[in-house]
């Protein structure tokens, strides 16, 4: 019998690696409503405009869109609302110090289920300039051309 995968991706922020240099990643739990969990299990989430705000001793996931659950009724949640992240106090203190450095921000990279718990992978990133993006695209094109030449 094949082994079940331990992680199941719900949403991936592909733009994160295009717009930022990701220096460090961190896993955090999420505080969610019941209809949010059902909507996530259906794969209805978008991380594109999301970011993490550290406020005092708490971290919040902002601007992440989790669609309303279709069978939710009056108990449905707001699609875009701040969601609390579950992190240790030392991790939050470390993030505060790193974010205060010039040019660093916290962005959600992927949203997934690990052992039936919703988790978010957070990246500590520096914003890329336009020429950095062009260099990354040129490197990817060169790599693709080399692979094509080796095959043919």
Automatic annotation (TrEMBL):
It is found in: Cytoplasm. GO terms for biological process: trans-translation; trans-translation-dependent protein tagging. GO terms for cellular component: cytosol. CDD domains: SmpB. The keyword Ribonucleoprotein does not apply. Keywords: Cytoplasm, RNA-binding. The keyword tRNA processing does not apply. Its main location: cytoplasm. Transmembrane segments: none annotated. Required for rescue of stalled ribosomes mediated by trans-translation. Binds to transfer-messenger RNA (tmRNA), required for stable association of tmRNA with ribosomes. tmRNA and SmpB together mimic tRNA shape, replacing the anticodon stem-loop with SmpB. tmRNA is encoded by the ssrA gene; the 2 termini fold to resemble tRNA(Ala) and it encodes a 'tag peptide', a short internal open reading frame. During trans-translation Ala-aminoacylated tmRNA acts like a tRNA, entering the A-site of stalled ribosomes, displacing the stalled mRNA. Belongs to the SmpB family. This is SsrA-binding protein. It comes from Candidatus Dormiibacter inghamiae. The gene is smpB.
């Amino acid at each position: 019998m094949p082994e079940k995968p331990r992680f199941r991706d719900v949403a991936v922020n592909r733009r994160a690696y295009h717009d930022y240099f990701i220096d460090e990643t961190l896993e955090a739990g999420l505080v969610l409503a019941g209809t949010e969990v059902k909507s996530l299990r259906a794969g209805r989430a978008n991380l594109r405009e999301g970011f993490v705000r550290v406020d005092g001793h708490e971290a919040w996931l902002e601007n992440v869109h989790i669609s309303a659950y279709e069978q939710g009724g009056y108990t449905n949640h707001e699609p875009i609302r701040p969601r609390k992240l579950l992190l240790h106090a030392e991790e939050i203190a470390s993030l505060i110090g790193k974010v205060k450095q010039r040019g660093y921000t916290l962005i959600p990279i992927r949203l997934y289920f690990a052992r039936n718990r919703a988790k978010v992978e957070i990246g500590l990133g520096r914003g890329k300039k336009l020429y950095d993006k062009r260099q990354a695209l040129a490197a990817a094109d060169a790599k693709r051309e080399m692979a094509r030449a080796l095959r043919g």
